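Dig into what follows:

_____
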Amino acid sequence: MSRMGMLDEWYPVAMFSQLATADYGTVLMGEPVKVALGADGKTTVMDSTGRVLPVRVRYGHVWTSLGTPGHELFDIPEAEQPGRRLVDVGVVRVRCSPLRAVENFLDIAHFPFVHTDILGSEPHTEVHNYKVEIREDVDEVWATQVEFYQPQAAKSAAGGITTEYMYRVPAPTCSILYKTCPPRPGEWDVITLFVQPIGEDLCDVWPWMALFDDTSSMTDLIHFQQTIFLQDRSILENQIPALLPLDPGMEIPTRADLTSVAYRRWLKRHNYTYGAQLVAQ
């Protein structure tokens, strides 16, 4: 598969707090890269030839690109909102396509079956109508008016509630979830999935959150989100085909898959083919 269409994107390669003690070596799309924090506080990223790559430090992570991005890293305004707790969840390595990881994050139908008694439960399995669009002005995929009953929507939730969701895909390997904030009605909790492509069927997933929660410990917040994602990992690592099919005839979508369909169409439009399967095999 070609990496064309993907090289000029921004990707997470490290959690910034990890750089305080040592240089950090990792792999991006098959290319070894080294992340270092200098004595002057400046972060640098280099590829295996010593070429200095572009760098951004935002949302608790170091971002870089193997190409020359023609756009800035997407904005998450809530990251600057006073009173929010910014949670670096850590990293989970998953043997799946980086695009599969994002697509799974967009799927609400699996809540009752994979995240039983936390994000969903039987018999509350129905996916109600919701709205999906590709917003041309910002070139992002959005799903809105999503509602689902959840026994424990967040660590701060005291009991089951009907949770409202919005999904946003601002980049091929990143997704942002806005959901009902139990302690602050009218606000949104923000949960993100930043995916680092290691290979076409291997990735590191860096969840990050911006929450209103004045009672839970940071450890409890991290463990809650890690529990959710580790439940997803076994599903992701057993999906067939391993790469994300972009041909609409390769899988049969249902109403619950509207966001996935839009995401795949958006990827195909931009020729994001790294980690994708273009034709049936």
